[in-house]
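hiii so my PI (J.) wants the whole complex modelled not just the main chain, which honestly fair. so below is everything: four entries, each one labled with what it is. i double checked the lines twice but i was tired so who knows lol
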Amino acid sequence: MARPARPVLNRQRIIETATAIIDAEGLAALSTRRLARELRVQAPSLYNHFATKEEILDAVGDAIIAQVDLSTFGRDPWPVALRTWAHAYRAAFAAHPNMVPFLVHAPGRRPAALRLADAVYGALVDAGWPPGYATRIGATMRYFVAGSALGSFALGFPADPALYDGHYPHLGDAHRLHEHRAQVDDGAFELGLDALVGGFVTLYAEVVAG
Amino acid sequence: MARPARPVLNRQRIIETATAIIDAEGLAALSTRRLARELRVQAPSLYNHFATKEEILDAVGDAIIAQVDLSTFGRDPWPVALRTWAHAYRAAFAAHPNMVPFLVHAPGRRPAALRLADAVYGALVDAGWPPGYATRIGATMRYFVAGSALGSFALGFPADPALYDGHYPHLGDAHRLHEHRAQVDDGAFELGLDALVGGFVTLYAEVVAG
DNA sequence: GTCTATACGCGGATAGAC
DNA sequence: GTCTATCCGCGTATAGAC
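here's the output for the full assembly
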């Protein structure tokens, strides 16, 4: 079976399968052989659809960012839009935490990331923010969202109580963070988002309306 | 020369050299062979000092976090301490951006990270913050600092103006972000830090003093 | 405590048959 | 458009000499 009657591969299938492997086993686990095995195909066949492995990764990254809903920016006042978008942005990142370092690294070469930056920056400038502020607000938001999706804070603390005994006087209950993972991580995100947007609203009164 | 007159390797040298390779070429570039070559030694010699490569990485991570000055927490009011520490924390992360994903992943198993968590959490609780708030404030700060150190916002946008032509109406000047890298990234960090700490101060008035 | 030698698998990518 | 065959280097880790 050299050439099948109909193609068995296409970019969409390759992207979806690559994403699944990265999500389940990490970025380092994605190899052309591993990807091909999952697709019931031999590794060289992938090169009919992508020139290099790096192109596959770019396509995976673009598909993730393309899912972020940007429609709030034309519709809602900027503080509401910033909050709504932040939630959508975090959801997209957090669904693929192993891709976050890659996504952050070179967004400028992926169309979906540029559309996102254009929407955020444009909405802030249209609302009256000076360009320098609009840029830094966008950067601040990405820092916070990427950091929150990069890895759970709560899960960073082992559930074994013996690890904290004696040496860390205030961490007596740290082993219980595991149980409250969602409460801690989601709560911290909301807390930070409130503070950031609240701070920007105060600043807006001084810088733009003042 | 089987056994040298005096040991040529020690943990300290291995840690420093591994850190240099990771900083210069990325986490993936660190292999036992590459590390040994840099140390003018053969790869198996490393196993006299570390049992596995993972142990080397843990030691590198611990050394980075151990450099974060925590003395502000016994000394300054909590909002000042939070700001002072955030700068030190960011400096440590940003000096080794390629290590950030690793550092975030399992802090609980490295002593320096536990000392850091103990100091932050302890200072907030001692100041009167309820435990749940202290935890989430610590998590929020790590999100923001890790995100800001993970990758430059400004450098994510290619310096080639042609890339933005036509398709992105508000990104006409995005190619100039490169030139203003420090201004953008440092400015965004300060902007976010102001907003976060300011928000916590307001919240403190309601939750603790109110 | 460092060396040499070695085991054994995985990595990305290409050439050419069908 | 997928296959088989192949290149060639790198990966961690162990055994045993000195």
